[in-house]
Design a protein that fits this description.
binds 1,6-di-O-phosphono-beta-D-fructofuranose; 3 domains; four-stranded parallel beta sheet; alpha/beta; Rossmann fold; nine-stranded mixed beta sheet; about 550 residues; Arc Repressor Mutant, subunit A
């Protein structure tokens, strides 16, 4: 028998909590419908592209009094994109609801992400299979992938596979890009009278799949708590040794929600927020000056150590970098089928092909960067055309530029300190952690609720569970039309319908909390040490959710 750690054994026994409406039984639900909806922007274009699924109402589930009979259904599920703690519980919740509705129902898991449904690679779940993964981190139950489901051929192949397995609904667990795929597939199935529903579930540690209807994506809670634990531990080390400046890049591809949340939980000396950099049009030079100013001030009072938190996506928000990267992305998209570019073996060869196509101003910015970063910027894009920012070592770029600037200041007599930097990148450490109690409950509820949406015949919806700062029994389950969250954006050089990413709101309560305190935190060490996620013990330790969710909800309540 497979050996399990004591925590694995105990977590397998944990029974996740459900909103009281869902706990009342999958066949005892009533659905309330709101009014017709619109996309967040570009309504005309989105409506044209989603003729069959546009404008549907937001729905909410309530406990019903009568019990309904549920017909036999086969459902397929896909894990899509980057891992996020709790994915296994979404599948467990979906499985439990489906079996509760009708024990004849079947759940198939497509292997390796969206490519599984195209290539017909799948497994059928049973109790034993699911029970081994309850409340565990990771996506290893069926694996994940980043294949973009968008072509007629892919949709046709998916339909063939669903027909073979008699599948009448597909659940796609993913972030903004993956749920955009879900919306496209839902529309295509309706247009072609396939009789297959598509439901999405909001996943991503990045926390940027949220809006008026979706309070947070799953995984954000656990990932940010994991990073906060690590930052807290490093702060203790820095405060003990008093000799290193730690530059910590935190995952979260585009938006800075993860870095901001981790900073609120730990109160480091410096926190950069990409959205602020963009809004204030801060150049790389001004960011370096801002950081050097704090390093110098601390050195003047004998503190040659500190902690700087850097969001993963920073580089794309610095105006001159943004322009250069966007120019590079378009050029690289146009070279996708160019054999010289595809087969170029060195960065120098690749850059020679790209160089004369870059606008002169962008070429100047590119050439001003250290060789390491230049190479990383030419690495392959992800399937959605994005730069893979996790592979760009912004923390090292900042260290290099700060060192140069501090040397200059020293030679002018304006810096008396000793700069000993250490770089870290926290990303993969947090994506597969055992889900916190919050994520275990939230994910299980999202999966259970996804089946409720299927049972009511809906398609093109995102599973939604709201009121998340209350205890789980008070959570509100329902569904939000995917088209409601969409707008048109440039991808691979073309305008495409996509779910709008939520960036950090600079006038929102979460950023304000940092803004009001950062001067103090910069100089007077106010480090917090959150420690490891606790699964058993007092509720005030084990069940509290993120500062982000609490601050956002308190603002919402204040405005009622
Ligand atoms: P999703 O948006 O798919 O959830 O992925 C988010 C993320 O974890 C980012 O934070 C990170 O930049 C990226 O995935 C890393 O991707 P990969 O796993 O392909 O290295």
């Amino acid at each position: 028998m497979e050996k399990l750690s004591p925590l694995q054994i105990e977590r397998l026994k944990y029974q996740p909590k459900l909103p009281s409406s869902l706990a009342n039984g999958i066949n005892n639900l009533e659905m309330a419908e709101g009014s017709a909806t619109q996309s967040v922007r570009d309504q005309e274009q989105i409506q044209k592209l989603f003729k069959n699924t546009y404008g549907k109402p937001v729905v909410t589930f309530e406990s019903g009094t009568s019990s309904h009979n549920s017909p036999v259904r086969n459902v397929g599920v896909i894990l899509s994109g980057g891992q996020a703690p709790g994915g296994h519980n979404v599948i467990a919740g979906l499985y439990d609801a489906l079996k509760q509705a009708n024990p004849e129902n079947k759940l198939y898991g497509f292997l390796g992400g969206p490519s599984g449904i195209i290539d017909g690679k799948y497994v059928e779940f049973d109790d034993k299979f699911i029970d081994a993964y309850r409340n565990t981190g990771g996506f290893d139950i069926i694996g994940s992938g980043r294949t973009k489901l968008e072509t007629e051929e892919q949709f046709q192949k998916s339909w063939e596979v669903c027909k073979k397995l008699n599948i009448s609904a597909v659940v796609i667990i993913g972030g903004d890009d993956s749920n955009t795929n879900a919306a496209l597939l839902a529309e295509w199935f309706v247009k072609n009278n396939a009789g297959i529903q598509v439901i999405g579930c909001p996943k991503t540690i990045d926390g940027d799949l949220k809006n008026d209807q979706i309070e947070i994506s799953f995984g954000f809670d656990t990932a940010t708590k994991t990073y906060a634990e690590l930052i807290g531990n490093i702060q203790r080390d820095a405060n003990s040794a008093k000799k290193y400046w730690h530059f910590i890049k935190i995952m979260g591809r585009s938006a800075s929600h993860v870095a901001l949340e981790a900073a609120l939980q730990t109160q480091p000396n410096i926190t950069l927020i990409s959205e602020e950099v963009e809004q204030k049009k801060m150049s790389l030079e001004s960011i370096i000056n801002y950081m050097c100013d704090i390093i110098v001030k601390r050195a003047n009072i004998g503190k040659n150590f500190g902690i700087a938190v850097i969001p993963e996506g920073l580089i794309e928000f610095i105006p001159e970098m943004k322009s250069m990267i966007s120019n590079l992305n378009d050029i690289m998209a146009s070279l996708e089928n160019d054999p010289d570019f595809v087969n170029a073996t060195t960065i120098r060869d690749k850059f020679d092909i790209v160089e004369n196509r870059l606008d002169p101003a962008n070429a100047k910015v590119y050439n001003s960067l250290p060789a390491l970063i230049k190479g990383q910027l030419l690495a392959d894009r992800d399937p959605h055309g994005n730069v893979q920012v996790s592979k760009i070592e912004t923390e090292k770029l900042l260290i290099e530029m700060i060192s140069t600037r501090l040397d200059e200041l020293k030679s002018q007599g304006d810096y008396i300190g000793k700069f000993n930097p250490q770089s870290h990148f926290f990303g993969y450490e947090g994506r597969c952690a055992f889900p916190s109690n919050f994520d275990a409950d939230y994910c299980y509820s999202l999966g259970f609720n996804a089946f409720a949406l299927i049972n009511f015949g809906l398609t093109g919806y995102l599973s939604s569970v709201r009121n998340l700062t209350e205890s789980a029994d008070k959570w509100v389950a329902g569904g939000v039309p995917l088209t409601m969250m969409m707008n048109m954006e440039k991808r691979h050089g073309e305008m495409k319908p996509v779910i709008q990413k939520a960036l950090v709101q600079l006038d929102g309560p979460v950023f304000k909390q940092l803004e009001q305190n950062r001067e103090d935190w910069a100089i007077n060490d106010r480090y917090l040490f959150p420690g490891a996620i606790q699964y058993f013990g007092p509720s005030c330790v084990c069940d509290v959710t993120t500062c982000t969710l609490q601050l956002e909800k308190s603002k919402e309540l204040a405005s009622v």
